[in-house]
Each structure stands twice: as structure tokens, then as C-alpha cells.
Amino acid sequence: MLPPFSLVIPAFNEASRIGNTLRATLDYLGAASPQSELIVVNDGSTDATSAIARDVLAAAKIETRLLENFPNHGKGAAVRKGLLAAQKPIALFSDADLSTPLEETPKLIEPIANSDVDIAFGSRALDRSLIGHHQPWRREQGGRVFNLLVRLATGLPFWDTQCGFKAFRLDVSRPIIEAARIVGFAFDVELLYLAHQSGLRLREVPVRWDHHEGSKVHFVHDSLRMLREVIALRSRAKTAVIPSDGEGPRKSSKAS
């Protein structure tokens, strides 16, 4: 059994799959960690996402909440809202398409629960043999280039900052989450950058992953916007005041 944690799922116009996603998530949590909570953040959907989520959550046997953003604020804003609302010591967010199977959850939760790390996040780059269904070639190569540029621009020693599967020890990560400002798809980079700069212990963990159609990322437009956000990140982060937990620098790592 896993220790109690908060699972956050951001959703924007996910009516076609949110019902199945939430039922699968509730089944998993009921079996693996029944004291956990599920938080769904509907980010200004214009379809039936909210209504479907409300119906599924109403029958849940674990603690659940549905949070609403109106209008659409962006994935970063939705994830941060869910993380800041979390009431368990550890919080994990997952994309609504469950590209990383929920069965990979222990890889992130256990190192945090064991006090080995403060933040653990899924990676497709450390072991690409774990990728089942790949993205279209152009998108996959674009992701590799983006992550290389992230390394060059931020100094982060990680190879995949964009996998939508990340877990946080909230007592030390909450100041990072509160200080973050990016509302779009580059929010992951900002969270990891601020955490790295603050000396938190980060671990990049290889996980299974499958591409699902229906991504909200527009390859050209959003990639350019994300690059602009990353370039601006370092100068903005220099002026950010992030409270320390008083335990001093910690070491980041990669899991094999």
C-alpha cells in the first residue's frame, strides 16, 4: 500500500475521456492508497468536462474535490491550484490522458515518502524503451530539441522536464509552487528550476509512457511561447524571494 497522497488531474475540454480517466484513477487509489484524495481542476472547459467529472466523483469512495477555473487560465495555473489545495503530505499531478500509467505512481511516491528526495518526476528520455506508443516523429524530435534548449538556458541537469507526471513533498515544495508564475505549458520548467535553485532534492525517474491523441499543445505556436517563457525565466527567478526550509542545499539525482 502507498502512503496517503493527493492526486491532481488538470482538465481542459476532456469530455471524451475524463469519465474513463477518473473511474480508472478512483479504482487505482481505492486499491493502492484508499486514504488518498483526488483533486480535479477543470480549467474553464467549454464542453461537458465539469459535469462528467462531477457525476463520477459523486460516487467515489475516497475523498475527492472538483475545482473550477473560469475562464481558462492555462495548464500551469490549473496544476498549481490543485497542488496548493492538496491536503496530504505528498502531491502528484498527472495528465488527464494518463499517458503515464497510474501503476508507475510508486516510482515517484515512495522515494519522497522515504525522505530520499523532495521532488520526483517522470522521464521519457532516460529509458526510451519504456515508451510504448511514440508521438509523431516531428513532435518527438521537437521535444528533444526543447529539452536540450532548457538545459542550456537554465542549467538544469535533466533530460525531460515536460512529462506530465510529477510528485512533490509539499512541506518544502509549497513555497516553490506559490512563487511560480508561468501559466502555460512551460510551468514544469519553472517549478523544477525554482526547486533546483532552492537546493531541493530532485530525481528524474524513467517511467512507462504512451502517446494519446488529443494533446492541447499546438506544436509551433506553443513551442515558441514555451521557449520565450524559458528564456525569461532565469532573469525573473533572480528576483523571486522563496522561503527556505532551513535544511540547506540538497542533491538532485537521476534514477535508473
Question: What are the main properties of this structure?
Answer:
16% strand, alpha/beta, globular, 256 residues, Spore Coat Polysaccharide Biosynthesis Protein SpsA, Chain A
CATH superfamily annotation: Spore Coat Polysaccharide Biosynthesis Protein SpsA, Chain A
How far apart lie the N and C ends?
Answer: 23 Å
* Mean pLDDT over the residues: 89
Number of domains: 1
Q: What spatial order of strands do you see in the largest sheet?
A: 3-2-1-4-6-5-7-8
CATH architecture: Alpha-Beta Complex
Helix residue percentage = 40-55%
Task: Count helical runs.
Answer: 8
Number of strands: 8
Strand content: 15-25%
Major sheet size, sense and barrel closure:
8 strands, mixed
Q: Which sequence of SSEs, written as H and E, runs from N to C?
A: EHEHEHEHEHEHHEHE
CATH fold group: Spore Coat Polysaccharide Biosynthesis Protein SpsA, Chain A
Poorly predicted spans: none
Rg for CA atoms: 17 Å
* Rough outline: globular
Determine and state the CATH class: Alpha Beta
Structural class: alpha/beta
Q: Would you write up a description of this structure?
A:
This protein is an alpha/beta fold. It has a single domain, classed as Spore Coat Polysaccharide Biosynthesis Protein SpsA, Chain A. The protein has eight helices and eight strands, in the order βαβαβαβαβαβααβαβ. An eight-stranded mixed sheet has the order 3-2-1-4-6-5-7-8, with helices on both faces. The longest helix has 19 residues, at 219-237. It is globular, with a radius of gyration of 17 Å. The mean pLDDT is 89.
